[in-house]
Design a protein that fits this description.
Layout (H helix, E strand, L loop, with lengths): L11 E7 L2 H12 L2 E12 L4 E10 L5
Antiparallel strand pairs: 1-3, 2-3
Length: about 60
């Protein structure tokens, strides 16, 4: 028996970041890992950095429990 424990997935995650391709990939990766979108995405503009910031909540789908 291995001492390495299987990493448990969080039931709820809030993905955040700059509104770019990398963020979209992270959301896609979460969906492929068994998460489903939860609620609407949120976005805000940061005038100090001149960037659009986004957030998307995801929860584990029924197959992930």
């Amino acid at each position: 028996m291995s001492d390495v424990k299987k990493e448990e997935k969080l039931v709820y995650r809030l993905l955040t970041g700059e509104d770019d391709h990398a963020f979209c990939e992270r959301v896609g990766d979460a969906i492929r890992d068994g998460y489903v979108l939860y609620g609407s995405p949120s976005c805000t503009f940061d005038p100090n950095t001149n960037r659009m910031l986004v957030a998307q909540a995801v929860i584990l789908g029924e197959s992930g429990y």
